[in-house]
Amino acid sequence: MAKVALSSIAKSFGATKVLDGIDLDIADGEFLTLVGPSGCGKSTLIRIIAGLEHQDAGSLAIGGSRVDHLRPHERRVAMVFQSYALYPHMSVGANIALPLTMARLRLWQRLPLLRLLSAERRAVMRGIESDVAAVAAQLQLGHLLDRKPAQLSGGQRQRVALGRAMVRNPDVFLMDEPLSNLDAKLRVHMRTELAELHKRLGTTFIYVTHDQVEAMTMSDRVAMMDSGAILQLGTPSQLYEKPASLKVAQFIGSPAINLLPATVAEGGRVELFGRPLALSVPLEPGQAVTLGLRSEALSLVQGEPGGGRAWFSARLRRKENLGSEYVLHFDLAGRDATGVTMRATPAVAAGVNEAAEVTLGFEEAAAHVFAAAGDRVEPRGQGAATASVVPLRAGA
Amino acid sequence: MTLALASASGPAPAARRRLRIERVTGLGFALPAFVLLLLTILLPLAVLLWLSFTNYEFGGVDMDWVGLANFRKALADPIIRRSLVNTLLYVAIVVPGGVLGALLIAVLVHRRKRTRSVYEVIYFLPVTSTLIAMATVWQFLLHPSLGPVNGVLKWLGLGPVAFLSEPSTALATLAVIGIWQLLGFNMILFLAGLTAIPRDLYEAADIDGCSGGIDRFLTITWPLLGPTTMFVLVTTMITAFKIFDTVAVMTRGGPVGSTEVLLYNVYLEGFQYFHTGYAAALTFIFLAFILVFSAVQTFALDKKVHY
Amino acid sequence: MTDLVLPAPVTPVRSALRRFLSLVLIHGVLIAGAVFMLAPFVWMLVTSIKPPAEIFNAEISLWPKQFYGLQNYGFAMEKAPLLRFALNGVILCGGILIVQLLVAIPCAYALAKLSFPGRNALFVLVLLGLCIPVQVPAMPLYIALAQLGLLNTYFAMMVPFFLSVFAIFLFRQFFRSFPDDIINAARLDGMSEFEIVWRIVTPSAWPAIAAFSVFSAVAHWNDLYWPLIVISDARLAPPPLGMMFFADAETGSNYGALTAAATILTAPLVIAFLVARRRFIDGITVTGVK
What we know:
The complex is a heterotrimer of chains A (396), B (307) and C (290).
Chain A: E1 4-13, E2 16-26, E3 31-35, H1 42-50, E4 57-62, E5 65-66, E6 77-80, H2 92-104, H3 107-110, H4 120-138, H5 154-166, E7 172-176, H6 184-201, E8 204-209, H7 212-218, E9 221-226, E10 229-234, H8 236-241, H9 246-251, E11 258-264, E12 269-272, E13 275-280, E14 288-293, E15 298-301, E16 311-321, E17 326-331, E18 340-344, H10 346-350, E19 357-362, E20 368-370, E21 376-377
Parallel strand pairs in A: 3-8, 3-9, 6-7, 7-8
Antiparallel strand pairs in A: 1-2, 1-4, 4-5, 9-10, 11-12, 11-14, 12-13, 14-20, 15-19, 16-17, 16-19, 17-18, 20-21
Chain B: H1 2-8, H2 13-52, H3 69-76, H4 78-110, H5 116-128, H6 131-141, H7 148-155, H8 167-195, H9 199-207, H10 213-224, H11 226-241, H12 245-251, H13 262-272, H14 276-302
Helix pairs in contact in B: 2-14, 3-14, 4-8, 4-11, 5-8, 6-12, 8-11, 11-14, 13-14
Chain C: H1 12-47, H2 52-56, H3 69-79, H4 82-113, H5 119-129, H6 138-147, H7 154-158, H8 165-176, H9 180-188, H10 193-204, H11 206-222, H12 225-230, H13 239-251, H14 255-275, H15 277-284
């Protein structure tokens, strides 16, 4: 177990800058996820931690000591690859045992023929076998030890890759998109298993994914990356509730956050579709801003609320039935925004018909304001304006 | 109307016509190849088989059916036996040298980034060069008194070695030249095989502590290169078994028969002494070996799914 | 699960040293091998510009004291029609290649895309043909050519190679992956099968054709066995046979002239290889296709 400290890690491939001075401290036993769109540098970063790539500048410490000069296996890290990278010609047992054979047998004891001369080897091999069996039991792989990887299902292969990582008792687990080759159902299941595994082992996990759901559901902290830089580092709820920038807001959350164009009026008051909101920001009047509204922040309201209320009218384009709830897609007729989505209970959804004109209301406190450059702007005097909007009740 | 017709009587006439056209064009396209196949392979093989049962001598008038006499004679002929032993000896030197050497070079070259293409060119150069011309150069390189190889040996305090005129060294020397010619070809085949091994596996191995050259090779490269190795092995066996050029130019079977090889004897019997019937039998012995090698290859490649 | 045991503490200096040593070792092996590979070429070039006196004093020097290249090359060119040998090589390779392509491409297309009676039998014959080296049908072919009075002709040199079962096999593999939809579309557009082969399918197989062409040219430029059998007239000799005649007849131990001749006859292919490196490597290793 160890903490991991990255300072000013930079890396370029030719003229392309992939990582631009990354600073990141990961606590002992933490589950940290690097999330971001493809090409954001997250995979390169984890490969640098593993020692598979070498940074151009900056330094890396694991457990308090510098490891920049160490080869991958000397760094006491284990890695699970996207493709699992199981050795196709070896049995499951041999795959899991490999890290231990490498560590516990001398080179000559591993060579063909020559190894038969070693008396000690058998004892070592027995020790390895029992360790492998222990790990296999934890992962319910016990009955598969003699199979070849090609004979396993995706989920089983995934567990073998985990077993190979666990068996060496590493200080840090590195996982590079480990679930992306699984089908959707299995992925959900493995999310839970991984989170539980982390809890059980208490080891530091560094996890790379492009899937924000994985990031949100498993991590202690999430580092959202884009273009070689960390945009925001925080707990999943921090990222969701207080996205530091438009990019973070757009990436985190499903359905994606609704973005509406707004402007700053006199006194910093934000105007949406020409109507002032009970929301003011420390920006110069006349500036364009973007208003971010999560789909659960919206609700149907009856009629047109009085002045000063946060509302806008929309037309229902489509109802998407997810079973437990609906996602309603609205067009904003004649407005610049493409459309908005709203979550609704089946009862609420039943109350609206397609193509119906409705009024959508929201609480200003739930709105995120982003300046033109994409940075988050904290509203002034939060709480001053708590507009009361009556949600449309079922059957009303 | 055509639709109604079609449903009434199986395939539409148009479709049937199409099918007929396809058959005719197919036959037409295959015909030239088939005629050449007949004239340059099948018919000659049949004639060869027939000749091997006769005592025909090219240019002669008489010939008699002699049954298996040619084959019996060949198997008892000490010259043929010696040439067969020499050929197999040559194969036994060239195959390990040419395959393992190429594998070593390929593994080392594969990991180079900037220098890879330079090494590729250098090692491949002998493959494209005309062996007969280079044989002359080798002859000079190995010349007992004028060649630089013996020059170096002398400088090292070793006596001059008459590589090609000493019965004990002549065949081995030819084998070294054979390896020289073949190494680059095999190297390229191995490089192609190495490229097909996923990089992930090496990275996983790195992390698992399997990072030394020997470990990486034994754990990943060698097992995953199995099918390539099998292919290279058999191709090399066949190529080596067909040794002719260097013998014909450099030693002509000498000294004292130490480099007489099977194909050279086939050539001598068939085209110098014109013992046509006998040479036909020898050709079949030669062919039998080639077919065995090919069969091994087909069999092994069928089983190439080893995991 | 016990902890990993590391043999010794790894310091930055140690790891740098380790990397350096492994590089030295790798390049040491590769360079030693490269010297073995290149030595004959270097010695050939060096000797071809040395005067006899320097050749015969058996000193190892990589550059002549007296430049004698003109005399050696002049002598070689004068004593043997080396350019003629090279020209014969070009004619031989060109003639063989053209017929091989003309025969193999339609046949491969038919095997890959058309159904006709005997198709499977023909393909089996092709596969069997792959195992038969030219040395096997050589004698009956020789007898036939002799009876027809065709020995000592370009035709005799080329005829056993007109059919390349390997080309048929290779192109068939390639054509099989050509989309049927395009062929059907071309048929609907009124193209004949003949046009489809040569104007639609063949251009798409360009990489395979280029690779095969290199393979074929290199093989026949360097082939000795068959020309040795059917050619006795030096004016028709391709490079290897020409080299053999030259080495036999003229020079004895005039190594300056011999190496000059070897240089001239090796040069065309080696230069072509250096120019089109990738094509050559692809072409010659195309036999590795499974």
